[in-house]
Design goal:
Elements: E1 24-35, E2 50-58, E3 64-78, E4 84-95, E5 98-108, E6 116-124, E7 131-139, E8 144-153
Antiparallel strand pairs: 1-2, 1-8, 2-3, 3-4, 4-5, 5-6, 6-7, 7-8
Amino acid sequence: MFAVPAVAAAGAVGTVAVSKGVDEVVEVISRRTATSLPSVPGANVVAGTVFFASVTVHGKDGVQIGDGSVNGMVVDIIPGLPVKLVVQNKIVLRLPDGELHLNNMHIREIPSPGKTFAIAVIGGTGKYRTARGDGIGEHATDTDTKITLNLVLT
């Protein structure tokens, strides 16, 4: 799930234009490596189902620069084919300069390439200990999510 501006973390990520009021833009790819939630919801997935996912975090060049986890809950199920899950997630990304702590709620449908969702930056550790902001996640594949975060570091 990344470090960006003019500094390159362990796997060169590139430079991103920073908007006014934003101190740093972070772009990464989060790759799910394990999850307790089945990819096709069955009878055992209901509103209230708690799940986890382990992820590796990669720079735009594909080099792994960290890892992380997602702790979530299914808060609603939208019937139809395919079934869509409304999930609420707490996300921690461990990067070379510290952790980023994120939160979001979105509709998850598998597969859903190109679907985007909002992400809140609620804190972190190390370099990111004062981080606030928001961002966008985009499901690229069944396992990969592109994440772009606009950080305010106070």
